[in-house]
TrEMBL record:
<protein>
    <submittedName>
        <fullName>Ejaculatory bulb-specific protein 3-like</fullName>
    </submittedName>
</protein>
<dbReference type="InterPro" id="IPR005055">
    <property type="entry name" value="A10/PebIII"/>
</dbReference>
<keyword id="KW-0732">Signal</keyword>
<feature type="signal peptide">
    <location>
        <begin position="1"/>
        <end position="18"/>
    </location>
</feature>
<dbReference type="Pfam" id="PF03392">
    <property type="entry name" value="OS-D"/>
</dbReference>
<dbReference type="InterPro" id="IPR036682">
    <property type="entry name" value="OS_D_A10/PebIII_sf"/>
</dbReference>
Amino acid sequence: MMTFHLATLSTFGILVVCDFNNPRYYDFDVGPLLENDRILISYTKCFLDKGPCTPDAKEFKRDIPEVLRTSCGKCTDKQKEIIRQVIGAVMIRHPKSWMQLLDKYDPEKKYFDDFNKFIAEE
């Protein structure tokens, strides 16, 4: 198991996630985000207000504060899996962007520890 300095987001959560009751996201294909760094960077820029947002990224961005605050407490198992994958990819491949996301969405690091534990869970 990797020890992540993985805290908050992503999800980004990532991050990532979505309107928790929106069935549109139950089948969200995370593959392109993980396989194509250009897409991952695009989502990250959207979340940081440094670039345009796709419709999916815009919806995800809207839910970042809730996901972070509750460590994805309202997420389905599938959504939790997606957030962990995407946040992990951002943390490993783009650590500076990850730190910027943390600074933006959790500037006081209130949720850092709990979110970090959530990300590290299997």
